[in-house]
Each structure stands twice: as structure tokens, then as C-alpha cells.
Amino acid sequence: MKYIIRDAEATDMAQVHKLIKELAVFEKEDKAVEVSVEDLQRDGFGSNKLFHCYVAEADGEVVGMALLFNRYSTWKGPIIHLEDLIVTESMRGSGLGAALLTKVVEHGYNLGVKRINWEVLDWNDPAITFYESRGAKVMRDWNVVHLDEKGIQKFLNKL
């Protein structure tokens, strides 16, 4: 199946949201998605744009996406963070994921960033193998730390 990769538009966010929910099921976190279509539209296309998104479209349907945002490293300077790269199940193995990742890397290169960061689950061996084959370094000695809303409240209550 042929596809095109393009900058997302606000009107794509309903289909992007569907992909986000599909990823949550794949990652065994199907109840974790709190963001809404309206949140995505506001945060990606409003006056205070918080992310950039690419979509892959085939036959008028969004079948993949990559959502990224700017960060700053105290060691390196400007970097970008790839929050999620999602390919719908029916398109996995088609080369679409590699094409989306290439688009993200080209975006970072054009911005002149010093690094592109993302996370991968330790049990997702096919993804890890793919990333490493493309030159990415999977940092197995680092742990991801999240402070969710309950954790933030607990932290602040300890002050």
C-alpha cells in the first residue's frame, strides 16, 4: 500500500488519537490515555504550540504518526524528543515506521539539534534491534523516571 508522510493538521487529530489508543493497548496500558482530541488540537495547533506531528496517510486514512517536541540538554544544547512513533497494526512491516523515523531524523538534522531522544520498552526486541541497526544507542543503564499527577501531589505534600 502506498502512503505519504506529511505535517499533521488539526483535523487529523481524531485519527491520531485513535492511533494513540491503539498504541496504549499494544503497550498493555489501555486505560492510561487521558489526552483528548481537543487537547491535541489545542496543544499542537493553538497559539502555544507544544509539539510537532507528522502523519502517514494511505487511501485518505492516517495509518501512522510521529509526535515530537523541542527539549534542551544541559550537556548538548538543543535536542528533540520523539514522544511516540505509531504505525497501525495492518501497516507494520511495510517500511512505514522506518519512513516516519527518517522524517523525524531529517527534521532534527534541519533544526541542527545535537540529539534525538525517545524511549522503547525493554520487551520490544524488534524495535530495539531496528533502532540499533540504524545507529541509535539504547541506554540500558538509565531508568526513566515519571512523576504523575498523584506523585506530584505526594511530592508537594512532603514539603
From TrEMBL:
The keyword Transferase applies. Keywords: Acyltransferase, Transferase. Coiled coil: none annotated. Residues 3-157 form the N-acetyltransferase domain. This is GNAT family N-acetyltransferase.
